[in-house]
Structure formats: structure tokens, C-alpha cells
Amino acid sequence: MKTNARVVVVGGGMMGASLLYHLALEGCIDTVLVEKGELTCGSTWHAAGQCPSITGSYNLAKIHAYSNQLYPKLEALTGQYVSWHPCGGLRLATNEHELAWLKQVYGYSKSIGFRMEIVGLETIKKLNPFLTTDQVLAAAWTQDDGHGDPSGLCNALAKAARDLGATVMRRNRVLEIRQRRGGEWEVITEQGNIVAEMVVNAAGCYARQVAAMVGSDAPITNMQHHYVVTHPIPAFMARSEEIPVMRDSYTSGYFRQEQKSGLMGIYENSGLTEAWAPRGVPEWDSSNELFADDLDRIAPWLERAIERMPIFGEVGIRRVINGAIPHTPDGAPLLGPAAGLRNFWMCCGTSFGIAQGGGCGKYLAQWMLHGDAEINMTEFDPRRFGAFADAAYVRDKVFQDYRLTFTTRPPGEEEMAGRPKKTSPLHDTLRAQGCVHSETFGWERPKWFSLDGRSEAGSYRRNNVFDVVRDEVAAVHERVGVLDLTGFAKYDITGADAEAFLNRVCANLVPKNAGGIGLIHLLSPGGRVQGEMTVTRLGDAHFYALSAAAAELRDLDLLRQSVKPGEAVSIDNVTESRGVLVVSGPRSRELLSTLTDENLSNESFRWLRGREIRIAGQPVRALRVSYVGELGWELHAPIDSMPTLYGAVWRSGQSFGIANYGLYAVNSMRIEKGYKAWSSELTNELNMLEADMARFINFNKGEFVGKDATLAQAPRPYKIVYTELAATDADARGGEPVMIQDRCIGVVTSGSYGHRVKKSLAFACVAPEFAAAGSAFDVLIQGERRAARVLGAAAFDPDNSRMRT
Ligand SMILES: Cc1cc2nc3c(=O)[nH]c(=O)nc-3n(C[C@H](O)[C@H](O)[C@H](O)COP(=O)(O)OP(=O)(O)OC[C@H]3O[C@@H](n4cnc5c(N)ncnc54)[C@H](O)[C@@H]3O)c2cc1C
């Protein structure tokens, strides 16, 4: 038995097998996959095997697209039968929201490169002549979709990995995983111990138990899911072609042909059941396990499927499958490092593991071996969940996600399952003022304020809060606005070596003098952007760093894992002990001056300076920075003092015309300022030069992580540009293709309407030859071409005069 390996993969389902193969493809064959039973014996063997191209997330769509390219080739590659049926897919739209969503995904298809058309009833009927099309408006016809035999696919991936030199051990359970003093992992299996540099949790429904072996957690709940297979259907017998895999919100499920029979799978939206309830976890000896059928539970939706496909009702049900699927709270897989651990990776939590397995394996292998994947992995990073994602939260969210699997949620709609989880002390006060919160990393954060009781009508187009956001922006621009941004990730970085440490791990030079504020970026050794932080120097050996709420654990890992032995640096996560009140607008100085003895004049408290002062008697770290491009201060205060602070600002603000504002308004104003955002423009896909962030690198300061790679990188066809769009009633939001005639030359990374400049604005990643100011191209928004022009400077106040004064 192999007792040492570079990588041990725990679990031989679709995810583990795909990862093993892709590690091997990337040249890493010093690997062992350890499976407690037979390959596929977890969730994989009983899956229905469908692989759709369509999914709501741009990055996940890349994962699906890669799987659909790989699977048709696997049989020829390995000789293993995979039963790939390239029948395509039809996703029905039965209302305008669904159609709008399909148009959004149509945009993804152009930039990612999978085949998709939006087709009308005539084509739908041609592709599936048995379908009842009541209420159907149109459908997405995705021709690269198919379905395969999941066991065949998984075994083929394992065989392909073995053929390249990887090792697979079956019937060998991992009992324990320990970290040795030197950092290597010791994987204790039934057949012996394996020492490994890296361990991967690909344990499917057991991922939570395997994570627990290393004191970590995989936030999953395992759900029961049914599909049924009918007796052979005479009408199918008479045909040689196969109908596409059908997906439909009315049915809340999928239906297709299974050989000459019908297959219907249901995502019921009531009576949902956890697998292995009430224990919630499978026994270790569970293998190829199915649960008792509960056709009554899914009957209402089965009936609808039969309404859609009356020929399915002409024959009886031959087989019922009720198996377990792991689900995460947000429906996306867990791909990446486990928080707080070095070299312990997650490759689990997928509820569409057949469709996603191929792509998940490919991009995770890149990340593990090269430090970065070629697609944006932020939304899959397991560290997007923290301690807030306890069992009750995960269960509530997963139930919601399962229920809504086939329901299109238009942008702007808030789902409340599991919430609120983390609230600022101002939460109730702001609610009473009409605040509508959105959730990031468990935090409830103000999104917009409903002053007249209206609710947001979610839409891909400008909706009924457009005017509300315009008014919030106007308040900040003309008077003064206040925003609770307590969810910011916050770290105190202290110690004699703190400055040298930060200068080593970031691309910019940190402020040299106390009171200075700088924007810094953490890079991977390969030079790609990992994190962005605002750093304030509070003293010789004290820096206060702020980063995105969703990056709290990621950046904590990046910082802590970069400290060298013996280095005098300590990094404290103070996120929950400080609140943040942002006071912005031309009258912010006057307002705050009523609450402090401190001189806030431009001469004594300059832009990009920070210091400890008292506001309304409360000690605050006052930072003169602004993400919205107006005069303003961020007040970072002990969390318990937030009500006093806000109360004083609000009361005093009345005579200055104060208004609350939320993150919609922030997004509108930050894009007017041309500020790029971490996780949309600043991602692991790009280096600082490609992200047009050269001014935040200091190549002269000596060595820093990612410097050599940034300098050595051969030119790649990516450049972030800032554009103005001739949009009418829908703005770009991310994922829209950038077109020159019929050629896709890039993709929008984020966009919004700029209310101060009254322009639709977007960032896009395009081929460098289109990056010069004045370059023109089109952006496809909701399937409609909108002219775009590259801007050479911020649309609003490019000289920063409003922040400087
Ligand atoms: C009825 C049904 C239909 C489905 N249809 C589809 C579909 O059409 N398309 C689609 O994309 N998805 C579908 N799915 C979902 C899909 O089955 C799962 O998402 C996928 O199989 C998950 O793969 P995995 O590798 O993560 O997990 P698994 O296949 O469960 O693999 C994990 C493996 O880890 C092993 N393991 C666990 N702990 C240990 C240990 N300590 N030591 C060693 N080994 C261990 C287990 O034995 C198991 O084999 C369906 C699911 C169900 C229930």
C-alpha cells in the first residue's frame, strides 16, 4: 500500500474521481483516492445523470460547460462505457421573469461558448412533440446538454486517472486525519496510514463528518430526492430520436426519455425530507443506499409532469429512486481551502455533482497545484461560510434552496430562510426606518430604504426602487447620508515586524507614517489578485486593515498563513467587536463637527488620513475615506456604542438633511468613481496589470508576494476596462458578453446605473486591443445590443476634488 502521497482524496464519487483525473492531467500523479466502499456507492450511482448547460451563475456555467465538453470524450479516452446521450436540453419559460433569466444566461452562453438559443413554441414542439405547452412562452434550447450513466462517468474518470498513474484504493475507510507537527497530514485508513502534503474532502454526504476529523465543518445538509421511471412508452418505441431533457418550473423538476421509458424527477416544495433524518448523518456502512419511496409527497408535481407529458401517464411507474444529495446553503459547491487550515481542501457540497463534477475537478486541481484557477472561484470558496452557518442555518437555507431549485428568483428578491443571523446593533432601528437588508457572510446589511412602504419588484430591468436609489444618491451627493457598514471585515495587525510583514504580503507600500491610509492588494505567488484591503496606520507597530465582509475568513487565512516563524506580527480579527458608521456627503463635516471637539477642517484632518477621536462622546477610529466619491468619514466604533453614535448622528443630521442610504446607492456611486470591486473585477483570474491596477503596485519597494510573477507574466488576452453604455431600461450587472459584430471579445464583470452622472456604466474584461479609451463595442443586455464606449477616467469627479475638499 502507498504510504506517502502528495495528495490524498477522501471519497470516490463523481467529485473525487474527477479531481483525481484532473490532478493527473496537470501532472500530479503522486495521489491516492481512498473510498470506503466501491466507487460511486454514495450519491453518484443513483443520480439521473443529467448535465444541463444552464445555471444562474456565470462562473458555475463555466464549470457545467467544461463537463459537457469532457463527458462525450470519456468513452473513447478510457474504453469505459458512459452512455452519453447528447440529446440537448429545453428549459421552459412560463413567465416574464423566467424569460428574462434565460436571456441573461443566453449572454453567458456567448462569452463562455456553449450552444444556446431561445426558441418559440414551434421549435419546442418540433424538439418534443409530446409536450403540452400551456403557459409556455419560450424555452432555452441548449444543444451541448446530455445525460450519461453516472457510474460509467465516475468509473471512466477514475480509470483515466489510473491510466495516468494515480492510485485508487477501494473498500478502505478513512478513520481519522491528523496534522503532524511539520504540517503534513496523516490519513489513518482501515488499511494503514498515508502521509500526505494535501488532503481533499470529497466525501459527498459524509463531508461534514470528514471535515470534523480535522476540527472543521462542511456546511451541508443531505436532502432526499426522488425520480421515477415509467414502463416503456409506445410512442417512444416508434421513434429513433430522443427528446431533449426538459426542465420546468410548473413541474418543479425535470423529465426526459430513459431509453424508451419516461423519467420524472421532482423538487417538491412542501414536505421536504432530510436524508437519514432525524440523525442527519449517514452511517459509515451505508452504501448504495436508497430511502423508502414516498410518492404521495411528490404526487402533486408528478401530476403536473404528466400534464406536461400526457404520454407518461399512459403507462405505470416501473422504478422509484429516492436517494441522498448533499446541498449547501447557497446551492454552490464547496471548492477550495478549509478555513484556518493549510493544505486541507474541500471538493464537496454539490447538489448537481454529475453536471458539475468535471468542471469542479478541473478548476480545483488548478487551484491546488498552481495557486490559482483560471476561472473566478470566489463564489465556491468554502470560506464564504463561517461559524454563523450552524446546523440550523444550513438546514433552513438548504430547504429553501431545494424548494426553489426550479424557481427563477429575479435579482433583488430577498429570501429570508435562516435570517437574520448576524446583525449590527442598529438593525432594528434601521428596520423601523424602512431598511431592507441583504445578507453577506451572515450579516444583515442595508440595501435600500423603503420610505413609503413599497417592496422591491425584483427584475433584470430597472425596477421600482430605481427612483428610491436615485434619491438616496442625491442625499449623499447634495447633503449627507449615513450607512451602517458594520459587516466590514476588520483586523488589527500589530507587532514590531507588522510593517515589513505587510510590505511583503501586499503589492503597494503601506503608509509610512501614523495616520496614513492606503489601499493594498494581496496577491498569490502567481501574481493573481487574492484580496483587497484598506490599511490605516494607527501607530509605529499598529495597522488597522479592512476588507470585504465576504472575505473575512479568506483574508484572515491569507494574512495569518503568510507570517513567517519568528516574525513579530499578530493578526487579530476584530470584525465583531467594532461597528462601522459611514457618514458621507458635502455636509458631513458640518454635521460631525457638532458632535466633536476635534478640528475636522481640511487642513487638520486631510483626505486619506485616520485617527482616534471622540464623536458624541464615543471613541472612534475616524477614517477620512470614501467609496462613494464624496467628502466623508468612516467611524469605526466599539460595537456597543453604535446605537449612541447613530442616534447622535441622526439627530444632529436633521438640520443638514440627513438620509439613510444602502448598498444599492453605494454600488451606483462606486462605479461612477471607477472603483473596481473585489470578487468581480479583482479576482484570482487576473493580475494587477490586467485588472488595470498598476498604480497600486510598488515595484521599487523590494520583494513582495507575486512580484516576480507579475513582472514575468507573458501578455494574456485580458484587460479590465471601464465603459459607458447606451442602455435604456436595463443596466449590465455582470456576465453579459461584449461583442464586436458576431465576435465575443469579453464579458462584463459588474455594472450599474450612475445616478449622479445619469449614465449606465460597467466594467468589462476584454481583449487588450479594445482597451484604449474611446474603443467601441456592443454589450448584450437582455439579448439586446447596447453600444459601449471605453472611458479613460472616472465618470464622476475624476480629480477627486469632492473628497479632497
Ligand atoms: C435521485 C437523484 C438524482 C440525481 N440526479 C442528478 C442529475 O441528474 N445530475 C446531477 O448533476 N446530479 C444529480 N444528483 C446529485 C448527484 O448525485 C450528487 O451531486 C453527486 O453524486 C455528488 O457527488 P460526490 O462525489 O460529491 O458524492 P458521492 O457520490 O456521495 O461520493 C462521496 C464518496 O465518499 C465516500 N466516503 C465518505 N466518507 C468516506 C471516508 N471516511 N472514507 C472513504 N470514503 C468515504 C463515500 O462512500 C462516497 O462514495 C442526483 C441525486 C439524486 C439523489
What are its keywords?
25% helix, eight-stranded mixed β-sheet, binds flavin-adenine dinucleotide, single chain, 805 residues, 28% strand, alpha+beta
Description:
There is one protein chain. The protein is α+β, with helices and mostly antiparallel strands. The protein has 19 helices and 37 strands. β29 (618-623) and β30 form a beta hairpin. The model has no long low-confidence stretch (mean pLDDT 97). Flavin-adenine dinucleotide binds at residues 10-16, 34-37, 41-44, 46-50, 173-174, 202-206, 210, 225, 227, 321, 323-325, 348, 350-355.
What's the count of strands? 37
Helix content class: 10-25%
Mean of residue pLDDT? 97
For the termini, the CA-CA separation is 70 Å
Which kinds of small molecule does this entry bind, naming each only once? Answer: flavin-adenine dinucleotide
Tell me what portion of residues adopts beta-strand conformation.
25-35%
- Any idea what the radius of gyration is? 27 Å
Count of runs of 4 or more consecutive helical residues: 19
Low-confidence stretches: none
Q: What characteristic shape results from the CA principal axes?
A: globular
- Secondary structural class: alpha+beta
Biggest sheet descriptor:
8 strands, mixed
Topology:
Layout: E1 4-10, H1 14-25, E2 31-34, E3 50-51, H2 58-78, E4 89-93, H3 96-112, E5 116-119, H4 121-127, E6 138-142, E7 146-147, H5 150-164, E8 167-169, E9 174-179, E10 185-189, E11 192-201, H6 207-212, E12 221-230, H7 234-237, E13 245-248, E14 253-258, E15 261-266, H8 295-308, E16 317-327, E17 334-337, E18 344-348, H9 353-370, H10 391-403, H11 427-432, E19 435-440, E20 443-449, H12 466-478, E21 480-484, E22 489-494, H13 498-505, E23 517-523, E24 529-539, E25 542-547, H14 552-560, E26 570-573, E27 578-584, H15 588-593, E28 610-615, E29 618-623, E30 632-638, H16 642-653, E31 658-660, H17 663-672, H18 707-712, E32 719-725, E33 737-740, E34 743-754, E35 759-766, E36 776-781, E37 784-790, H19 801-804
Parallel strand pairs: 1-2, 1-11, 2-8, 4-13, 11-18, 21-31
Antiparallel strand pairs: 3-7, 4-6, 5-6, 9-10, 10-11, 12-15, 12-16, 13-14, 14-15, 17-18, 19-20, 21-27, 22-25, 22-26, 23-24, 24-25, 27-30, 28-29, 29-30, 32-35, 32-37, 33-34, 33-36, 34-35, 36-37
Helix pairs in contact: 1-5, 1-9, 2-3, 2-5, 2-9, 12-17
